[in-house]
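step: validate -> pass
step: tokenize input -> pass
step: predict -> running
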Amino acid sequence: MRIAYFVNQYPAVSHAFIRREIHALERLGMEVVRYALKGWDAHIVDPLDEQERAQTTYIQREGIPIPKMYFARAGKDGKKYRFRSLGCWPISGPVESN
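step: predict -> pass
step: emit ->
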């Protein structure tokens, strides 16, 4: 099975739990790919985070386009909404966003 993690910035000091979760999935034999919008130039001190950085694809640095559905836009009620993911409703339904 192949699983993707998509986060705003990775790795970061506050993301140790994500790293542990990824490593646990890999120990179970799953392939985990890492995507982050940014973080390739952030200061990190943990050697494990250095390894994670090397395995992460950085969306902004690589110029990978992001579907517009992930960005907030006005709904019929005037509030702004965005989608967190694609999949079955209601898990992937729109969420209010700024």
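step: describe -> The two ends are 34 Å apart (CA to CA).
step: cleanup -> pass
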